[in-house]
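User: Could you check the structure of this?
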Amino acid sequence: MRRGGFASRSAAVVALEALSGPTSAAAAGLRTEEWLERWLASQVSLRASTSRGYAAHVRGYLVPYLGGIALAELSPADVQGMFTAIIRGDAALGRPVSAATLRRIHATLRATLNAAVRAGLITSNPGRWPELPAAARPRPQVWTPALTQRWEQEGWRPVVGVWTAEQTAQFLQLVRGHRLYALFHLVALRGLRRGEAAGLRWSDLDLDDGTLTVTGQPQQLGGRLVPGPPKSDAGRRVVALDRTTIAALRAHQARQQAERAAAGTGWAETGYVFTTRMGKPVGPDRLTRLFRRLVTESGLPPVTLHGLRHGAATLALAAGTDLKIVQDQLGHSTITLTADTYASVLPETARAAADNTAALLFPARPRRAAKRRPGPRRADSRPVPARVRPCRCQRAGRAA
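Assistant: Sure, the predicted structure tokens are below.
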């Protein structure tokens, strides 16, 4: 930070002292814990899940390690010491914190201290550049026969497993009679997030036109479901539906009408597409548990409900769908995120791409009949008599 244009050295020193310390009397004696709690209470426009995550980071990590330090005296060394202690302490307890979790804790700390800078309590953010382990984005890994065999023999599983087209079709065939079959069909083919599927209303569907509009997703807060916005602005999107998905949703609609008639006055008219037998919405966590049980019963390699969404993107790319269309279908904020996440597609697609690339250098040539080359005569072959020109006496005898 630089300032200039002072009339004298003493005036520059006074300005330096003002910039080096708290710019407001309100910062005097203010502990970091007090500021963190004040900041948490001021966050009124966040999604329920985001607010819950911030509170967990503040009370589980930031306050225990940094809360007793005066906010104006908080230094980069204090911040680095906190992350080092978190990494070593949790590893010693046998529950190491992932690099992604450390990044999220850092994001919360950075947001709180940026707010303190804007409030004039500190002049710079001491939590901007701590040294943290690199966090690599987990990439979906397809359950090839080799990986499936490894899972069966060793119990190994990838971080993010994705079914092949055959495995996905097998699962959908096995759960076809389930009352929420249409939800699994929708996620497997169109790639909705579990919250987006749980928050889908009949008013969001136009089955005649074959479209679906994502307008929100419920959040679980204190054991109850509350309506919430999509994950991002890109999450608000219109998704085209194929004829098989439209047929599955129409069959589900007929089933739900039968359940409404059977429930009578006990039916809760909520307008949701996927509900309990009494019309109440189904929470995302409940869907996760249900899907996990169905996968276990199927005997297929394990995938999560979010992995089923990854499979939808992988299948779309394998079918030759443009990457931009896949991005819009999934509701990703950038096409880079889509490309980085699904760099590896189905094995047969990758092999076909490799063969097509090699064909540019080594195009297939038509096979020609091999010419017979001179060589040693076989033992069983008879000599072919050469055509000899008759001598002069033979020619004279013929003439006579």
